[in-house]
Amino acid sequence: MKSEFDLVVIGGGPAGSTLACLAKKYNPGRRILILERDRFPRHHVGESTLPGMLPILDELGVTEKIANCGFVRKVGAVYVRRGQRPWSVPFRTTHSDRGRPAPPAKDYAWQVRRAQYDKVLLDHARESGVEAREGWAVRRTRLPSAADHPAILTVADPSGRELDIEAGIVADCSGQGGVLSRQLKVRSRLPELSNMAVYAYYRCDPFAHPHSGLFEESKIVLRYLRDGWLWFIPLSREIASVGFVCRRERLTNVAREGGLAALLDDRI
User: Fold this and answer.
1) Considering the entire predicted model, what is its pTM?
2) CATH for 80-96+190-267?
């Protein structure tokens, strides 16, 4: 059994749903499919967003839906280093590459719950005419030998049954999963970005923190330590996300010893 699509997007997170939705918007007659191995809503790290995404949300036509989710409004960041005064960076004072003040298109973003945020985007893609299948995993991909031949994706449906899907174009938006790069053995790491994070959610009053701001005007707080850095992200009036980022090798070794929770507690 084969299905044919003009574009198949691997991954239904923000990148995949955005690409599929925009492709459908500007090519309404095309058949577009998103394949997502998980079922939404699902938890995901990466809660603190930037104003640069708002024009994209506007183009998608989903800004109002996101604004109605009740997420904490974010207006900047604060950097904290021992022995130095905290450095606050409001979005409204961002600068151009040449150093001259450049008023941003938007001066705010949100601190989001990714389970909710990602589902809104995926559902919006569906409402825009994109077909999205959750619980579908890509097993193998055979790329075409000629430009006018389709790619063949062997996928497993939620029951585990395998079938082939033909795609004129395949877009890998699987993030860290790196479905195509792993299959094609072209995946590589940038040494300067070889970091990992351990994090947890804490029940507290996030706005009791001296630098986190208010619910309507919050900031992410970044605290530098000797071997990495901490983030503090207000997610609601009662929940904060706190994470420690350091070199991949460090966390890998600690994870083998079962000490990730102790490491995070110690750094906090």
Assistant:
1) 0.91
2) 3.30.9.100
